[in-house]
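Posting this for the archive.
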Amino acid sequence: MAVFKDKGSMYNGKKWRVLCYYTDWRGQRVRHEKRGFETRHDALEYERTFLAKQTKDINMAFNSFVDIYLRDVTPQLKKSTIANKIQIIDKHIRPYFSEMSLSEITSTHILQWQNELLTMRDDDGKGYSPTYLRTINNQLTAIFNHAVNYYDLPKNPCKAFKKIGKKSNKEMLFWTKEEYLKFSEAIQDKPISYYAFQVLYWTGIRCGELLALTKKDIDLEKRTLRVNKTYQVVNGEEMVTDPKTEKSNRTIDLPKFLCQELQDYLESIYGLDDDCRIFPVSKHYLHHEMDRGSKKAGVKRIRIHDLRHSCCALLIHLGYAPVQIAERLGHESAVITQRYAHLYPSVQKDMANRLDQEFNDSEGE
């Protein structure tokens, strides 16, 4: 190992150079050289970090290991997933642990970090949502799990404490069919909004799946809609990628009325190519229309994703089995679908009325 002045013709002794050797994963000795450092300190720091990464030294800086972690997982994940990971790590994890080495972070540090997240407030005095806190906590846990599984860290310090936040919000909002019909009537003044929300509610597809739809995804003769991609914006770049999961690739049968509406809509778009997006708007546009329509209709404001919940609840109310609904909505498991079974209030009312009837019948005997 050596750090010395670079006397090559390019630098003429004005820069520093690193020359070192390490043993690679095949057990072979490899020579590594890096040039162009401004100071000896910079060269030594590079050498220390580089060798720590190559030898899986758990005394490496936490920041250096995060770089390794991201390098390792990036080929296996979607671009949008990596972008979300980086955003969370850079905002909530790196700043707190950046001055520590991977091996010196203890459960006490984790507890202090959790408490700091719990006390953070924005300008309006609001803290992070329970689900966002859980997402942040899970990301740090994933980093340490990677260190344990692949880089010989003895244990994950996150496992000494309960996770902060919640996996999901306790309340799951949705619209009944009557509420949705009021909303859809309120937005009929903008055809692209009306037809977009019609597809979202009556098919239960995800927002990104809707925005990725093209003309060739709709077969009006067979009355089907094909879902095989999703639209998203990552770091300002628009992209169409594979859908969320393998089960998300599916073909949905459409009701006649929706086919007729989609035919009217497609015929109204001049010069529409087969590969063009039929809803060339953004999620921000749909959020704005959700605000406008719910206010105008006098119904509670729900999230766009809650339209998917609403469709699921309606299908359960109509008597379809969770397995059948899961196939239509692209759920990975029917267990996910069953979470929505409690939503439709009329089911509970029907139960109560039926019990009343049973009681009254028995009284009359």
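Residues 2-55 form one domain. The CA atoms of residues 332 and 344 lie 22 Å apart.
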